[in-house]
User: Fold this.
Amino acid sequence: MKKIGKYLSAVLLLCVVTVAQAQLKPNEIVTANALFADNGCSGCHDFASKLVGPSWQEVAQRYKGKKVTAKITNVIRSGGQGKWGDVPHPANEGIEKQNATLLAKWILSGAPQN
Assistant:
């Protein structure tokens, strides 16, 4: 019985840590929204509707529960093609890695508004 209790405690702790990592602070949401606006992302992406690229809600839903922050960060900075159709995602090497990581976390959390 003690073994089961230890396993349940470990699982609960893992869940709490995962949820805490997924949540963004209010200042991070403001910064991510500004990065979205300032880097031309709105020309291809919207919060709820597909434009040239998928909506942020579609991206968050596709990758829900998966650890893909680094993957999305890489696509933001280096570009990509084939995951969402024929139109390639352009490279945005001018976005610092830290900011691209914040954008990735923001996108994966459903791109909350200010």
